[in-house]
Protein 1
Amino acid sequence: MRSINLIVIHCSATREDKSFTEYDLDICHRRRGFNGTGYHFYIRKNGDIKSTRPIEKIGAHVRGFNSESIGICYEGGLDCEGQPKDTRTEWQKHSLRVLILTLLRDYQGCRVCGHRDLSPDLNGNGEIEPEEWIKACPCFDAETGWNQV
């Protein structure tokens, strides 16, 4: 079993007015050269949690951190015009919270963060600030906001 110390939250970067299934996600990732969906879990708008990659298998979701992390992605993350936005439904928020609490029981001491929180600290001040984000994903403060329903 691999050592896990991170739970990384992502969004699919898809518009809130469009459906993007776990099958669409798999096709998208395969077109990018991955051997299947890079995230371990995918949370649909209705709150369904889909297991998309075995936890034992290293993910393909955040460069430099895949070997030590579990990736969770929620469907959405863009408004109707394609701009970054926290589009999580109440069902997604609830499912995300339940999933993270369950994972934290099995992988105690893990840090929960968003993809953007693993961007490089360009100015070296010890803090990843919005102007340093490689992308806005997951479009909310995952370190403190994952448990807010």
Note: The radius of gyration is 14 Å.
Protein 2
Amino acid sequence: MPESEPTPAAPSAEAPDRPARADARRNRDRLLATAREAFAAATDTVTLDAIARAAGVGIGTLYRHFPTREALVEAVYAAELNEVVASAETLLDELDPAVALRAWMTRYAAFFKIKRGMSDTLRAGWASGSIATPATRERVTAVIAAMLRRGAEAGSLRSDVDPENVTLMLLGVFLSTGAIDVPDKADQLLDLIVDALRPAAGPNGR
């Protein structure tokens, strides 16, 4: 007696949704990336319509992912802060701690530039409670502390520096240079900070 044909497996209930979910994730990621670029380059208010157009999606798609301007700004801010924190360990794995710290400062400066483009929405959202208040300074200072510790162990950074003081110096650089139009001024000041964090030369120049 011939074997019967196997019964075809019933299609997964989730299968039709997978392409839609993948498209939705790509749209969300594209919107976040586009918003980051827009806020980093902003000299005036960045509109949600402009972000949607630049991302190649309709405004309805943007609102499905981010129902309000505050929701988009909060998502961009959180993603950027997470990347800034995570980048430190990658840099330490690849570079001498002092060099890694200087490279990380450049990454932090980029985050601060994006934050500046969102500042009005962030301040209003934090004041009203519509945007959660992040522990930004604490997380940044913890990163600096870890990098200073690694640098002290390697002998390329001082061991007697309060990480909070470094955080305050960085904020001073970003706030002051953001108000002037002098190319490379922030880089010059960041170089000075790293130089100040290196151990003093001994009597033999070492």
Note: The chain is about 70% helix and 0% strand.
Protein 3
Amino acid sequence: MIKVLMVCMANVCRSPIACVVAQSLAQRQQPPRPWPLRLWRPSGPLFQSAGVMAGLAGERTDARAQQVLEKRGYARSKAHSRRIKPSDFSHFDLILAMDKSVLNELQRQCPAEHLGKLQLFLDLVPELAGQDVPDPYYGNLQGFEQVLELCERGAKALLNRLPRRAPDAQA
């Protein structure tokens, strides 16, 4: 199973949105669950989120982020904010930063052997490479809608680059 960590500043807006979108789109690509369900193990990618400066660990995803997710037909984020921890760099296969300042902080914290796992989220979309997913926290609902649109584009590009099935699930 491929493990992807989405990272923003506080882990209450951008990274939870990106995580929900990627997980939802990945689930749509999965084959139907076999019966009996209790024996079924997902083989698709695992998505989680974190923040480089998540101040209030355990804080829920911003209500405006939840609102735009629901409006677009996604499930509400069940994530609670958490700060990135040293073990994340070895645990995750890919760590995606929502903006350049987050990427710089991740590069500062990351052990040298895991630096190759770090990438700017929108670099996955060729026409958006080098751009940030803007932080909507101090803005209005329209900013959250823009973030959702960018996250959809980034998540689709990410899923197109990942194998359809995890290597351990292939025959």
Note: The domain at 3-29+43-165 is CATH 3.40.50.2300 (Rossmann fold).
Protein 4
Amino acid sequence: MIKYALTCDHDHAFEGWFGSSADYDDQQARGLLDCPACGSKAVRKQVMAPAVRGTKKTPKTSGDDLPAAKMQAMMMEAAGRIRRHVEENFDDVGDAFAREARAIHEGKAEDRGIYGQASPQEVRELLEDGVSVAPLPPEPPKKADVH
């Protein structure tokens, strides 16, 4: 997995995790990347310094020194737990998500946790109208798909 620091044309900064740099390039070319804050499709990588470890051993001083692979595994586990919690406790409203979220926000539907699908345009409109929404963490990769 590769973590990229990303930004949109409205200068919203966010992170994206990809299986490889080719996965990022493919998703970008297909228009699948959008800003979680505003939905803009004009997403680009920020300038980043590579994380290069030196050859000298340094003493461990804190939890900040966790190996990248271990940190990644912890983050993926946490994201999986969040996703499972939502799927087990919230109502799946499918492609009616934007309509249902708006109805809940306006008090026209029962106040409850929901999840589903919405287009980038629908997400933009919900955010502009003050409706709080957040992307659901992706499903963890299947063990057979991990190299």
Note: The chain has a mean pLDDT of 84.
